[in-house]
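Action item from last week, closing it out:
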Amino acid sequence: MLISTKGDYGVRALIDLAKHEGEGPVQRADIARRRQVPESYLDHLLAQLRRDGFIRSTRGPGGGHELARSPADVRLLDVLESLEGSLAPIGCVADVTDSGQESLCGQRWVWQGIYENMRERLSGVTLAELVEHERDHERDAAVNYSI
C-alpha cells in the first residue's frame, strides 16, 4: 500500500499544527512553507480535515487553523482513513461482497492479516508521538559546536 500525497501532506499539516499548539491559529501559508506543501492543495486538505473534526478554522484577521483536539487523541489511522479512504490492500478485504476480486479473494486471509496488522500499528501511533519523534530527529540532526 502506498500512501498518496493527500495522506502525506495531510499528516504533515497536522504535525505542524500540533507543533504550534497553544500559539493560536496558524495560517495556511505558514503551514505550506514549513511543510513544503502547495498552498492550493493544502486548502483542500484543510477543508477535509475540518469537515472530519480534526481541526478548527477561524476566518479574518488573526485567523487560521488549529487542532480541534489534543494531539494525544488523534490517531494516525483515523487521519489516513479520513484522507485516503479505505487502506485495504485489495478490494475483497475492503468489501467482502466485492465479486470483482474473486481470484484474489482466495488469498484473502493473507491480505486480511496484513490489513489488520497495519490498522493495529497505525491506531497505536498518535499525532503527539509523531511530533515527539520529529523533535527528537531535529535534536539529533542539530550540529553540536561545543569545544
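Closing note: The two ends are 47 Å apart (CA to CA).
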